Amino acid sequence: MPAKIQTGLIVVKQDLPCDVLLPNDESKAAMLDVRAKNNLETLSLEQLQRDIATKSSAVIL
Fold this sequence. Notes:
Strand content: under 5%
């Protein structure tokens, strides 16, 4: 959608066209840590893929 049309819709409806989600306290703390370069660890792509696969297989739907 062109920006002018989207801006017009926001003005007319007095609402945003999408939900605005704010980070929770845990996410805020993690973002502050990253910016301050605290609590960082280095992972290889393979380690990250294994970690994701392990966590996603543990999720019960």
